[in-house]
Write a structure and sequence with these properties.
The protein is mainly β. It has one domain. It contains 1 helix and 6 strands; from the N terminus they run αββββββ. The protein has one helix at about 1-20; strands at about 25-35, 40-45, 60-80, 90-100, 110-120, 125-135. Strands 1, 2, 3, 4, 5 and 6 form a 6-stranded antiparallel beta sheet that branches. The longest helix is centred in the N-terminal third of the chain and has 18 residues, at about 1-20. The protein is flat and about 75 Å long. The protein starts with a helix and ends with a strand.
Length: about 140
């Protein structure tokens, strides 16, 4: 009788375990110093229709800002499953590209900036990582 009860409980619990997924999120506020002036890349784009033809009056620009930063501090900014620590407790160099970060147009080498660094991972999707400029 006890075996039947155990089997019934297992049959009830097993399907729920298939839908359970582990996930983690890290939201960290990074503080660093620009090692170089930001490199601004402006790309002119055109939208195309379903036939691959360029649409009239569809021109637009996208600006990317390439940054080389010396990260010296990190703090938890929301959920942080891994604790938001500097690797080996040492500052490190970070090279990233931010889209449309127009607040950096006047930035120069030596300026201090803050970035929100968000990493998300679930068992069903690839890890995503993004940086958001903070004022």
């Amino acid at each position: 009788m006890m075996n039947i009860i155990r089997l019934t409980v297992l049959l009830i619990i097993f399907p729920f375990s298939l839908f359970a997924s582990a996930s983690y999120v890290d939201s960290c506020l990074l503080t660093g110093t620009l090692l170089e002036d930001p490199v601004i890349m402006i790309k002119s784009m055109n939208r195309v229709d379903n036939n691959g033809e360029i649409m009239a009056n569809s021109a637009y620009e996208v600006s990317d800002f390439e940054l080389k930063i010396w990260i010296t501090d990190t703090k938890i900014a929301g959920r942080a499953d891994s604790g938001c620590q500097l690797p080996d407790n040492k500052p490190y160099e970070l090279l990233i590209t931010l889209a449309n970060a127009y607040d950096l147009t006047e930035a120069k080498k030596g300026d201090q900036i803050k970035l929100l660094h968000i990493i998300k991972n679930t068992s069903h999707t690839p890890t995503t990582e993004k940086y958001i400029l903070q004022k």
